[in-house]
Amino acid sequence: MQLTGQNYIAGVTSAEGAETFFSVNPRSKERDDLPYHNATAAEVDRAVEAAAAAFAEARNYSSTRIADFLDEIADQIEALGDDLLHSADRETGLGLPRLTGERARTTGQFRAFGAMLREGSYLRPIINSEAAGQPSIRQMQFPVGPVAIFAASNFPFAFAVAGGDTASALAAGCPAVVKAHPGHPATSEMFALAFKAAIAAQGFPAGAFSMLQGSGIDVGQWLVAHDGIEAVGFTGSLRGGRAIYDAAARRPRPIPVYAEMGSVNPVVITQAALAQRADEIADGLVASVTMGTGQFCTNPGLILLQDSPAAQHFIAAVSDKMSAAPAGVLLNETIARGLEGAVSQTIANPEINVLTGGEAIADSDYFCFSNTVMQTSASAIRADDRLQVEHFGPVTLFVVCEDADDLRATVDALEGNLTSTIHAEADELDDISDLLHQLREKAGRVIWNGFPTGVAVVHAMQHGGPYPATTAPGTTSVGMNAIYRFMRPIAFQNVPDALLPDALKDGNPLGIMRLVDDVYTDGAQ
User: Would you call 297 a catalytic residue per the annotation?
Assistant: First the structure.
């Protein structure tokens, strides 16, 4: 497959920028020969204008037509074949087995949204009939307009150019202008080719999708500041997400930013759990911390437990297992430098004890960092919120609490997270109920006797949480409900039936489930 190193603006390649960057293989630190062109402000402008024109044309497309488009995208991604897998493997070092599964998740997301659109109730139609002194009011969800999507580095398929943010935006009926991640530009361009083919096959307006390359912050800043963009989806670091959030807030007309910015994902382990299955928990914890070389936003980075001989034995066992595990490949040099800086900041605190690792492996042929276990006290972490920083790699920090009260005080001091986890036994349910609900207040997903790495693309999934995990804790970036980030409710008051959308008409021509006068029904009003 011949790649160009150019941007894709409404299906047309463009390379007006003089600044270029290159794809780098993290296993060898060698760069590819093809230069990729940073998009210019003029190219960003054209992409957004094309998206606005596409929205004007497609804003009233039926759910079925959009669903067919989503299915076509999945088909075209699969048509890229193994070239896509090998490209991503060269650029990320994630390995073909992981990438094969991620491709299935990526195409599955598009098809799952398509199925939801065909069922129809995602529109959330609500009808309140005219009553004494009350008008007839009918409400449903509509797309917000062109959306800017920022691709993530750690999931080159599922959270990147063709990831869940793009899928949910297109499912909502919103054209997507995607800022590709500079860590995998070749893979990003291959996805752009799949979108171009899907748009042609389904007769969609070309501006429904554009892909912009960029190695710095300029492209993203121009994109967020553009008045034609109505919302932003972002997955990445706290620093990057906050910069985008602030840029959107500075606009004369601010827009929502749905930024998922990582998390330390606290795990609480009770004494009873240690007594019953310490080895099992240790194995699961090490596997979770090192999965994907720790480069998951749900990596368990903070482990809380009460001090005891069993707890100290457990910490030592985890440290030994982490030390024995092979060092994995980090995605790129930026990730490696960021991890080294974050760990260095943490171990500079005199209350931190490094049990294993704690440093980059300087003589390695690939980007890597030693598997790292650190330990501190509950009072130390309450005194310094910098100890709650995310270490984006194979790193975890044990927090040893004096007793149950100390543990609960520490949970109270935690910042917002994507997940929180508790390992406990069945005979502790009454004793730990309050603790479980404390953890609930700190995260979007609470896990019982498991580990946070991995998400399911289902309706019930909540991948979000209180700040600083996200900027919008009431939303999710994984699962079917992700679509509502890019939709808004509109109510129609006393509007004639002939002028209403089909989902709100008296006869319910779509045959979908609606809330009519406080009763759910798929019948006519």
Answer: yes
